[in-house]
Amino acid sequence: MCASQPIARELTDAAVASIRLAAHIHGWLLLLPAAVLLVVFTHYPAVATIIDSFFSTPKGSRSAVFIGLDNYQAMLDDPVFWRALGNNIVYAASVIPLTIALALAMAVWVNGKIAGRPLLRLSFFTPTVLPMIAVANIWLFFYSPGYGLLDQVLGLFGIATHNWLGNEHTALACLIAVAVWKDAGFFMIFYLAALQQMSPRLAEAAALEGASRWYFFRRVTFPLLMPTTLFVLINAIINSFRLVDHIVVMTQGGPDNSTALLLFYIYEVGFKFWDTAYAPTLTVALLTLLAILALGQFLILDRRIHYQ
Amino acid sequence: MNSAAAMNPLRSTGRASAAIETAGAWLLAIVWILPLAYALWAAIHPSAYSAHFILNAPLTLENFVTAWNAAPFARYFLNTFLLVTMILAAQLILCTLAAYAFARFAFAGREIAFILVLLQLMIMPDVLIVENYRTMSALGIVDTIPAIGLPYMASAFGIFLLRQTFKSVPRELDEAARVEGAGPLQVLLKVYVPLAKPIYIAYGLVSVSYHWNNFLWPLIITNSVSTRPLTVGLQIFASSDQGIDWSVITAATLMTSAPLLIAFLLFQRQFVQSFMRAGIR
Fold it and tell me: Of chain A's two ends, which shows fewer C-beta atoms within 10 Å, N or C?
């Protein structure tokens, strides 16, 4: 493939051809096992989702028939779909900036000279290792009306008990808090890695110039961390559409669908109502959304390569 | 730098703001650990004290015993262990072979194949639950442990990560081994795999914690004690309407997270470094 020049000149055309052929065969043989699984469990289901969304749900003896865009029409007329989409947008738009801001603050603190840094890092990172399902159970207890810790703490200030997860206006905010708590420490470590690669001379020079820490952060640290922020942003976006474990445990999408996110609604339609045509239609909607976000990510990453 | 700080007339305000920052950092850390500390409190005290914080509350392990006996947690632990091991072993083999192909063989269609692999980063198995369930029932393997693992075994993330690593291996090492008569697989095992060891450890830790914690797909595809992983078992235990008290549920919750949590506390540095390595690409 890449033999040094004198040897390459001595090779006959036939030998070169046989090396090239071997590269084709070896390459494909090595790739084959992974390719088979990818085709069966990623590419095929992605295509099948789209095909199934054009068919009806088989009922009893009637098998699925082609119904064109009827499922999509039903989706556009479905208030629960719009509710779930809206919830998901509110959820993502709250979780992502909060998580990133906290992760950044945590990283700056853990990277600085604050007393007890190892303990801080431990406290921030520990929620990351726990299963979301365990986290959700712990927070369910935390939020429980009357004797949960939240109500007890608020009780000290004379605030009446409240059914946090049972109220349409507070339930989604409660789930947002859980997601932020779980992920901020995870993203902290990426910022920490980037901060540790920054030259300490920058801070020294800024201190000599008499720049305040906040000014230094705003004008030097934050711009230098931009590539990390983009990486974290992409992962945070994906997580906010991919992870619904806490909803299954804490609210089941209720009360009155106020905490239904898209993937949770797909799960409900597909595996509680067993609607095998409408669930793929909703999946197409989610995949389209992810594709648009991926396109944005591609454009951003493209720019990132240019300025590095 | 010290002399610069000493000359700075603003150093006392600097000190005050540093104190405020320290206080803020500690406040956040306390808020962050509070839910977990609260769960631990409830788990190791009798249920009468689960929301009643006094220093001389009696300690007990009774909640853990009750939880352990109330559901087949031993079996769930075994299932999770089998699942995580099976997925990791398959991922290491499949991703190594595929990454080697992408890194070192100029085969026809390599670029297109690589894009098709990366597509999985966007179209994740977590989202394709409806169609993958159909495939599993067509294959007749619903409610088996391999069915939980199959969609995740060919991991685009693993292939990408290892391809980057293999590409950074100097060609000279590869060629030296070939001159000595080693075939493609021997070169892979003797040159590439040993050099990528830190990446394997990083990927392994990330994979194990991901699949130990995974919930939605296992919930859908399993429906018996002999296949359910811990997360699904915990959820079924916690949501049964038999009036199990909170102390027992929190004990079960901590029990199911304990192996990962203890491993993390013991190998903190490796965990953090591994997550960092696997993330920065």
Answer: C
